[in-house]
Structure formats: C-alpha cells, structure tokens
Design brief:
Largest sheet: 7 strands, parallel
Helix content: 25-40%
Structural class: alpha/beta
Strand content: 15-25%
Strand order of the largest sheet: 10-9-8-11-12-13-18
Shape: globular
Radius of gyration: 21 Å
Length: about 425
C-alpha cells in the first residue's frame, strides 16, 4: 500500500491545537480486520506485523485494538471490551473543553469525536442511531472523558457545554427521503433545541449545513453569497429546504439572542465508516468493484462532483469552530471530476489494491442507469473564504482517500460484516 506523505492532520490555530498523528487515527478505523477470524488466528507478533501495514508501520497501536473473534462457519462474532484505551492528551482544566456532538455516531461525527477525544477534551455524543452506529465510537465507551447518549434531538436535552457541533440529520437521499417529514422536523426542531441549549449555556454553536442549500446551481463554482436554485417541493426538498431553514434559525438566534454561531456548508465528503447502503457514489463504486459487480453510473456520467477526504473536513470544522468567522463557510475540495472518469479511477485503484493483496479478479464493467430526479449537474465549492479566513485547504488527494477507503471496505468484506 502506498502511504501518503502526510504524517499528521489538524492545525494549531485560533488558540486551539488540533494536530494528531495520522497513524493514530488510522489505528481507530483502518485495520486489516476489526476482529480476528478463528481460521486466521495469529500470534501476537504476526498481528503486530499485519496491523503495521495499515498504521504506517507503527506497531504500538496494536495494544489498543479489540480482540473480538469472528466465527466464519456460523457467521457470528464474539465481542470483547477494550483492555486499554488509546492515549489521549492530558490537558489542564482551563484548556479542556466540554464538547457536545449531535449525530456523533455517524460518518462525519465519529471522525470528529476521534479527533476531539485524542486531543484530550470531554466529549458527549447524542445520537438516535437512525443512520449512526455504536460501533463507530465503541472504542471510546467507558472512557472517563466520553459519554454516549441515545437521544433524538427533536426532544430537548439539558447539559452543560462549551461547544456544540450540531451534525445530526440524515444526509444521504435514501435515508432523508425515507421519512421526509421527520427529516424536516430534525432540521428545524433539532436545530431549535440545540440553539436553545447554546443560548442557555453560552456555548459556541456550529451547524453542519450542506452544499445542497445551493440546489442545482446556476452559478459555478458556488460562493457563499450565492442564494441557490432549489426545488422546494421536489423529493430532495425535505433535506435541502430543511438545511436552509436551519441556517435561517441559526442566524435568527445569532442576531436576536447573540448566540455565537458558525455555519459550515459541507460539500461531498468520503472516507472510512461511510455506510455502504446509503446510496453515495463513492461507496457504491468501491463496494461494487470489490465484489466484482458492475459499477452503476446514473445518466451519461457527464455530471460533475468534487470530493474531499474526511480528514480535511474535520480540519475545516475544528478551524471554523475556533475562529471568529460567523458567516457561512464552504468546506470542500475544488478539484472537479465527472462521474464517469471518477468511476474509472475507482476501478483502477481497486484493481491495484487487489493485485497487491493477491486477490485480483476480472475488470468490472461500468453500466448506465436513468438519472434520479433533481440530481444536480454541477457541484463545486468556491473555497476562497475558507482559505483566506481559516487558512484551510484540502491536503488529501482523492486518490489517497480512495485507497484508504478501498482498504477499509475490503477489510469489512473479508471479516464478513459487509
């Protein structure tokens, strides 16, 4: 595996040090197996060698891995608790923040939680597990700095906090269209409740908005002052308009009640822990290619997307939270792909990884299906504001991220959980 020449993520800026070694983060999500299969029982030394491949030859982190055992004959798993947590930074009380992350068991939330925990802060996760999973943050359960609460944010929640990262809301079309009314309710009522909490506790509040507020844009790339082109009654409107009204509510609290707010408009993001069943183009392509199935491109493949890797997004969210910028900020990768070219790149990387691992199969085909309703033709952020105000720009290339994600999904398939 070609390891990217990136040894750490994060920044020491705005009085908040968020720098974490990449190999430590990898040890939390990118392992040859989340579990040990009975048929592949290894000695401790063999486990260290195998694990080192995925953590840039850092074998120390094997001590903090789960020793759960997978039984392939009965397709069952024997879970165990961690014997030791990953080391976290020891902060003085005046630097340690109490941080609430709504939707913290989801894809983006779990990576944010990993970063904040390793940095030594006290983290509380609220999640109703509609799309999130306990397994994404299970390695922190029981840690004295960590609390996981099953809670639906459409109901009020009381806690004392310094910062609120409000990420809770289904974000993929199959999930947010499953119950459109509940999606709108989550965007409005959930945001109302969390803003009320921020008002009471005087906490800083960051909402994860989305590039969907721009709809099917007529301006390309999209700057933050573009008002958007959204169908308010289409199948995607429950999410698009839900996020737009959540931003309206956020700035209502900011102007009326002086709540300290931050708005991050997140563009397409990918990485380990993405739900392979959520209909996202990246996970769809990778899983189809790994399983030897035809890769599905909707439409003729000329529609374009920009993709950022999860670590770049987490860098941007933490920088925005700790900066003084109260205007909306686009966080995304400005490098644009058309979907057909992207599918071909994923196919090449999957073939490369399979060849390295000795599991190469035939080259999969790319097939075309009708394009979904209101699917935007172009989507690329203008990230000038993030660069100028936050000093942020993506460090990970799409190819780097795709290879990590291929390794992640391949391990999930090998262990029988995908």
């Amino acid at each position: 595996m070609e390891i990217p020449d990136i040894t750490s993520v994060g920044h020491n800026r705005f009085g908040f040090d968020s720098i974490v070694p990449v190999d430590v983060l990898r040890s939390l999500y990118l392992r040859p197996h989340y579990v040990t299969a009975v048929r592949d029982a290894k000695t401790d030394e063999e486990e260290k060698q195998t694990h080192a491949i995925f953590t840039k030859n850092n074998q120390d982190n094997i001590a903090y891995q789960s020793k759960s055992i997978y039984h392939p004959d009965t397709h069952s798993i024997s879970y165990t608790t961690l014997s030791r947590f990953h080391p976290v930074r020891l902060l003085p009380t005046n630097q340690r923040k109490r941080i609430l992350v709504t939707g913290g068991a989801g894809f983006v939330g779990s990576h944010l939680v990993d970063r904040l925990m390793l940095l030594g802060h006290e983290v509380t996760v609220l999640d109703n597990f509609f799309t999130g999973s306990k397994t994404t943050v299970g390695h922190w359960v029981g840690h004295p700095n960590f609390e996981l609460v099953r809670h639906d944010i459409v109901e009020p929640f009381m806690i004392e906090v310094d910062q609120i990262y409000h990420l809770a809301c289904p974000a993929s079309p199959p999930h947010y269209q499953f119950n459109a009314v509940k999606t709108i309710k989550t965007s409005f009522m959930g945001t109302l409740n969390m803003l009320g909490l921020a008002k009471r506790t005087k906490a800083r509040f960051l909402i994860s908005s989305t590039s969907e507020v721009y709809g099917d844009p007529e301006v390309h790339p999209q700057p933050e002052d573009y008002w958007g082109h959204v169908n308010p009654i289409g199948p995607r409107a429950c999410y698009d308009e839900g996020k737009r009204v959540a931003e309206t509510l956020t700035y209502g609290f900011h102007r009326q009640d002086n709540v300290d707010v931050r708005v991050a408009r997140i563009f397409n993001t990918f990485g380990p822990r993405m739900n392979p069943a959520d209909g996202r183009v990246v996970s769809n392509f990778i899983v189809q290619a790994l399983k030897g199935e035809d890769m599905t491109v909707y439409g003729d493949g000329t529609q374009t997307r920009s993709f950022q890797y999860i670590h770049d997004l987490i860098d941007g969210l933490i920088l925005l939270m700790n900066s003084d910028e109260t205007r909306p900020v686009n966080i995304g990768n400005g490098h644009e792909f058309n979907i057909l070219d992207f599918a071909k790149m994923v196919r090449e990387i999957v073939a490369k990884v399979q060849k390295e691992d000795g599991t190469a199969t035939h080259q999969v085909n790319i097939i075309h299906k009708p394009i979904p309703t209101d699917d935007p033709q172009m989507r690329r952020p203008d990230t000038t504001r993030a660069k100028e105000v936050l000093g942020w720009q993506p460090k990970w290339t799409v190819a780097m991220g795709i290879e990590e994600m291929v390794r992640y999904y391949k391990a999930k398939i090998d262990e029988g959980s995908l």
